[in-house]
Design brief:
Blueprint: H1 9-21, H2 33-47
Length: about 80
């Protein structure tokens, strides 16, 4: 994460746009299996063209990014589904 304590101004020009484009989002959803499949499929379709092993001609300024989508049933400590 950008700390604001960068000695090299050139470093700031490279890092700041990448940090500003970054995000962490968390959602508590209440969905059916079919409803959950829709955003999962949409996210996959949206992200797939950017997968490093698929994208052979990325722009020079492109950088490696970790991206993930996890969606699974919430389960209580006793093993029962959350209500």
């Amino acid at each position: 994460m950008f700390s604001g304590r960068v000695a090299d101004p050139g470093h700031d020009r490279l890092v700041r746009p990448r940090v500003e484009a970054s995000a962490i989002n968390t959602y508590a959803l209440r969905v059916t299996p079919a409803e959950l499949a829709a955003p999962t499929e949409a996210i996959d379709a949206l992200v797939r063209p950017y997968v490093a092993t698929i994208r052979t001609e990325a722009p020079e300024e492109a950088w490696p990014v970790h991206a993930s989508w996890r969606a699974y049933p919430r389960v209580e400590a006793n093993g029962q589904p959350s209500e």
